[in-house]
Each structure stands twice: as C-alpha cells, then as structure tokens.
Amino acid sequence: LEKATISELLGSLGGLFPRHSIIGDLMNKRFFEKYAYKIHEVIRQLGATFRYTDDDPEAIFTERGYCLVQRISIVERAVDFGSLFIPKFILRYFLPTLATGYTVCVFQRA
Questions:
Q1: Is 18 helix (H, G, I), strand (E, B) or coil?
Q2: DSSP states of 40-60 as a string?
Q3: In angstroms, rounded to a whole number, what is the distance separating the alpha carbons of residues 27 and 15?
Q4: Tell me: the pLDDT tens digits for 61-83?
Q5: Do residues 59 and 3 lie in contact, with contact meaning Cβ atoms separated by under 8 Å?
Q6: CB 60 within 8 A of CB 54
Q7: What gap in Å lies between CA 26 and CA 56, rounded to an integer?
Q8: CA pair distance 30, 58, nearest whole angstrom
Q9: What is the CA radius of gyration of the chain?
C-alpha cells in the first residue's frame, strides 16, 4: 500500500475500533534495497509491487497514536526454525540490516 492509503486505513480503523491491534510485516528501505530488490522485480513482473518503503516504517503507525507492542525479526525466526543456517551472533553483529530490516510488528491503538 502507499503511504496515503495506509494513513487513510489507520484513520478508518481508529474511527470504527478505538481500541484495536494491528499485526503486520514491515520492511525498511535499507533491507529492501540490499536484500529484497531481486524478488521485487519478479513480483513486479507479475503485476504487483511494494508501494511503501521507508527508513522507519513503524513511524507511520506511531505517529498516528499506535504503540509498538512487539517486534519479531523474520530472519531471526527463520534461523530459529532451521530455515537459515547462520549463527545468530553473526547475524546480529555483522549483518544487522538482515537481522532487523524485515519484521513482524504488533501495534496497539493507545
């Protein structure tokens, strides 16, 4: 979704459900440019695209009254489940963009 569409959706949800939670996957711009651009090209050829990449994708939520409750690294969880074979200390200290750039976030409306 584009930023304006996300803002409009958050406004609508807030009006309909004053106290609610949102769970979504967020990818920051640096992760996208470093790791996801190749798959994005394939997705784009199929007719879809990522519309919103930002240095701080969580900000669109927090600036609209949401509190970040939980952030889970998708890549670290892939390591936990054995889908990726890389020691976590290498991931965290030598590949921080890979470790923190693509996450599942839980937000609650304050």
A1: coil
A2: HHHHHHTT------BS-TTHH
A3: 26
A4: 999 999 999 999 999 999 999 99
A5: no
A6: yes
A7: 9
A8: 14
A9: 15
Angle at 44 between CA 107 and CA 37, to 5 degrees: 70
Contact 103, 73 (CB under 8 A): yes
68: left (phi over 0), alpha (psi -120 to 50) or beta: beta
d(CA 98, CA 35): 8
pLDDT for the residue numbered 21: 96
Residues in the chain: 110
Token digits of residue 74: 């998708």
Q: So what's the pLDDT on residue 48?
A: 78
